[in-house]
Amino acid sequence: MRIKYRLGLVYKIILFKLGFGKLLLKDRYGERILVYHGIDEVGETKYNSRFISKVFFEEFIKYITTHYNVISLDDFYQKKFKKDTLNIAITFDDGYLNNYTYAVPILEKYKVPACFYITTIHEKAPYLWADFLDLVSYHTEKEEIIFERNLYKKSAKREFIWNGISMKNVAKALPYEVLKLIYEVFEDDWKALPPKDVEDYWKLMNAKQIKEIADNPLFTIGAHGETHASLVDIPLEAAKREILTSKQQLETICKQPITEFAFPFGYYTNELAEYCHEIGFERLLLVDYNTKEDAKNETSQNRFVMNPYISMEQQLACLLKGSYF
Ligand SMILES: [Zn+2]
């Protein structure tokens, strides 16, 4: 798979270099919803693969607004598409402060609409547990730790592993009352983090910043769960509470109805999707459909995750194809 992926990318680069990129891509137009997570100064990938540099982000936005049809999610859902081009809507997941600091001014400059799906964990903790784990695992000198009576050992990739499973994978299925005990295990490591230069990788927007985005006619706020648990792995009642609470908290902050929900990790079940509709969510944002049948449901849309490892041309080629493979 990896080799096929690399060869595919090399082939695309050569075609672009020779000026044939457009020919290759011509019949691959259609519609895509992009999903970004964080924007930072440099596109750092040592902590995880969620951050794109602000320079690359601006270059990309400039390119797609020049060459394609960039539209709001409202227009996307109403199928206000142009023919013979790529129709693109832009979304951000998680609610990072860096969205507010770096992405919003660029989106405003090019008048690009976007939706921001916010995890309301900021009311419980100042960070998302996944970012906490990424940062402390990278910087700690600990080689092993005990969590829930299991011994986790640090791997060469600086992940804590027990029984072949990474701590992050264990964490996403835990109820928050248990999960938050991880903060104590790494408390000293968190305090020892280099202060300013890692803030882009964990700071979340506060209520005032979220409200400011909600009030901007270019932008929309949607919900993304309360603690970023994997909703298909925690008990059903807890999952429903996560969905409902994130909606209510954001409605209090934004003083407007919140009608869009993006599933954390893109994981969903039909039962959860139904519950979302019951409580007033009109649009559900996924990553991949579970089944071909789900693709026929027009309230749910899959999204294309942006990749920090590849060049602009490679990114465009994959985007037009609608896949990295
Ligand atoms: Zn997320």
From TrEMBL:
Question: In which compartments does the protein localize?
Answer: Secreted
Which residue intervals define the domain NodB homology in the entry?
A: 86-325
Primary localisation category: secreted
CDD domains to which the protein is assigned, alphabetical: CE4_NodB_like_5s_6s
* Key words, A-Z: Signal
Taxonomic superkingdom: Bacteria
| The protein's name in its UniProt record | Polysaccharide deacetylase family protein
Q: What species was this sequence derived from?
A: Kordia aestuariivivens
Species lineage: Bacteria, Pseudomonadati, Bacteroidota, Flavobacteriia, Flavobacteriales
